[in-house]
Design goal:
By secondary structure, this protein is mainly alpha-helical. The chain is built from 8 helices and 4 strands, in the order H-E-E-E-H-H-H-H-E-H-H-H. Helix 1 crosses helix 2.
């Protein structure tokens, strides 16, 4: 089942304002998962056995990157402390060895989201998000929801408007080509880029 959501205008809601819309959805998703739906069958018009009940769960949040940040409490990719939605790598470590073996931050993410929810002053919330890179989001109330693996950047934004090109430019070119890690051929010597193209052509 696909649940489309469109917020009221005329302006895009903030991350905190968006949670008012999401609360209505999560309020219904919780009993759908914990109690399920009782399915009436011809032989069980007054109720069905437990094995005929049907539970439902949210398997993914699909949106563009700016909305994903708001819906699932992440810091933006430009955040200086926590730009990554998967781990605790910092912006300075993004293209270094620590970035390749950083631990998952799920529990930390959930704990900080709860701390954010306790704050009531808008300025305090803004300061907290700036330092920690995490905000409260309604999906934390779903016991099974993992924002790192269940937030999906939709294909239109991921492919058609250049997200993949941005990744290639910022990561592949800067890290491998501009640093001369992968070198082009000289007049006599075939080097790394030639080997890669040979693999791709085979």
């Amino acid at each position: 089942m696909l649940i489309p959501v469109m917020t009221a205008g005329p302006k895009e809601p903030t991350a905190d304002e968006l949670q008012f819309y999401l609360k209505q959805i999560v309020d219904q998703l919780i009993p759908l998962y914990t109690r399920g739906i009782l399915i009436k069958m011809p032989l069980y018009q007054n109720g069905t056995p437990a094995d005929l009940s049907d539970s439902s769960a949210c398997i993914g949040v699909v949106c563009d990157h700016p909305v994903a940040v708001k819906m699932c409490g992440f810091g933006d990719h430009g955040h200086s402390i926590l730009p990554c939605t998967q781990c605790t790598v910092t912006q300075e470590e993004m293209f270094s060895d620590p970035a390749l073996c950083n631990e998952c931050k799920l529990q930390r993410h959930l704990d900080l989201a709860q701390e954010y929810a306790i704050l009531t002053d808008p300025a305090a919330r803004k300061g907290f998000a700036k330092v920690q890179g995490v905000r409260w989001y309604e999906f934390t109330r779903l016991s099974y929801f993992n924002p790192s693996t269940m937030t999906i950047i939709d294909p239109m934004h991921n492919l058609l408007i250049g997200m993949s090109c941005l990744i290639i430019k910022n990561h592949w070119y800067a890290l491998w080509i501009a640093s001369n890690t992968l070198r082009g051929n000289t007049g006599k010597t075939k080097r790394e880029l030639h080997v890669i193209h040979s693999y791709l052509d085979s």
